Amino acid sequence: MLRFRRMRSLQMFAAVHSSVYNHFNQERGLSRRDHFKTNRAAALAEWRELLAA
Q1: Which of 23, 29, 27, 13 is nearest to 45 (CA)?
Q2: What is the rounded CA–CA span in Å between residue 19 and residue 31?
Q3: Are the C-beta atoms of 28 and 47 separated by less than 8 Å?
Q4: CB 38 within 8 A of CB 14
Q5: 10-residue stretch averages of pLDDT, the chain, 53 residues long
Q6: Integer Cα distance of 30 and 28 in angstroms
Q7: DSSP per-residue string spanning 1-53
Q8: In this structure, which of 9, 15, 32, 43 has its CB flanked by the most CB atoms within 10 Å?
Q9: Other C-beta atoms within 10 Å of 36: how many?
Q10: Dihedral sign of CA atoms 28, 30, 34, 37 in order
Q11: Which residues are within 8 A (CB) of 10 and not within 5 positions of it... i.e. 6 or more apart?
């Protein structure tokens, strides 16, 4: 966190990072591989759809 010179930059990074991390964090150890891959593919498709808009 020392790399950020301005508090505003840190806040913007944290907001974007938390949104992306929460979207893709699937708790890998708690699910089977096929279920994990299905969820990850759905999250990636939704993310690409959001970026295309």
Answers
A1: 23
A2: 21
A3: no
A4: no
A5: 76 81 70 83 86 77
A6: 6
A7: -TT-SSHHHHHHHHHHHHHHHHHH---GGGS-HHHHHHHHHHHHHHHHHHHH-
A8: 43
A9: 15
A10: negative
A11: 1, 4
Residue with tokens 């993310």: 47
The pLDDT assigned to 10 comes to 83
Identify whether the C-beta of residue 38 lies closer than 8 Å to the C-beta of residue 46. Answer: no
Residue of 39, 10, 7, 2 lying closest to 22 (CA atoms): 39
